[in-house]
Amino acid sequence: MQTRAAVVEAQGQPFTLSDVELEEPRADEVLVRMVATGLCHTDLTMGSFLPPEMFPNVFGHEGAGVVERVGADVAGLEAGDHVVLSFRSCRDCAKCRAGLVGYCDSHLLLNYMGMRLDGSQPISRDGEPLFGSFFGQSSLAAHALAYADNCVKVDPALDLTLLAPYGCGFQTGAGTVLTVLRPRPDECLVVYGAGAVGLAAVAAARAEGVECVVAVDPLAGRRAVAERLGATVVDPAEAADVVARVKELTGGGAAYGIDTTAIPAVIKQAQQSLGIRGTLVALGLGAEEFALDAIDLLQAGKTVKASIEGDADPQEMVPRLLAMRAEGRFPLDDLVATYPAEAINDAVADVGAGTVVKPVLVW
């Protein structure tokens, strides 16, 4: 079938809306008409990070839409279902069976290689295949082929334009708090970078009753949102010593830290601002390596670790967060700024400038 997709033609190039051909769903695939797609930092990073031979490429991994057709082997989904798309997992390896679906043995192949496991690509243009199975969806398109394992069925009464970020950004930030760190109400959490992921972490921590939540971000608009969500905010440009200021606010150092920036200097500050035996989770994608303060790490028994998608299972985490949203405990709707699909590069520019937190494209 013919549809439209936002194609990155070559490494480091902007998106170009293009007519493409999408194959009919195979036995294990689900054809989804996209209503909205969140634009995530990973989509932008991969456009510059992947090698030249992996282009042209169709990214997108925060899709939300309506099922149009399902393959013969697909169970639990049918035409007309409203779904949020998330990352893929095989659901059969030892890690998946243990509930660690983000660490699936086939995670890289299923999510980043832009093709099916058999090497075929579901999207083509003028007879030439495009890389087009990013996170098993490539949902920066008017239609996408997905799978039962990465389709989360949602209430059709809900606005899909507001649900798209739950497939990755909101899930990652909130999941890191709810699944990885699990702070007690009397412990302190510091979030570095108050974008969509960081603000989701702030909201989740406050929803769990954590009283001491600090957000560090240079952008006034994002600090204002973090403050509204219940965080104490720090402007790193105004703080003479960010580490000292955070330690002051957290009574000598935070129990937990989350970095979403992938900026090496910020990650080091985040580690140093932890208290004794504190834990930092690095979530940002971008820097290939970063330096830690070894003396501080060893003498204080600190932990620095990473997490894929907040160690969450989207089939469990997305419904959990939507239930919290319905209860008024996860109030992130106003983070979403919608754009027509044709304005995708405007959305990229605006999120880069910090004028919006979470751009969502409407098809």
TrEMBL record:
InterPro entries: ADH-like_C (IPR013149), ADH-like_N (IPR013154), ADH_Zn_CS (IPR002328), ER (IPR020843), GroES-like_sf (IPR011032), NAD(P)-bd_dom_sf (IPR036291)
Keyword entries, A-Z: Metal-binding, NAD, Oxidoreductase, Zinc
Cofactor(s), names only, from the UniProt record: Zn(2+)
MF terms in GO: S-(hydroxymethyl)glutathione dehydrogenase [NAD(P)+] activity; zinc ion binding
Keyword Secreted: no
Family under the similarity heading: Belongs to the zinc-containing alcohol dehydrogenase family.
Name this polypeptide is given: NAD(P)-dependent alcohol dehydrogenase
Organism lineage: Bacteria, Bacillati, Actinomycetota, Actinomycetes, Propionibacteriales
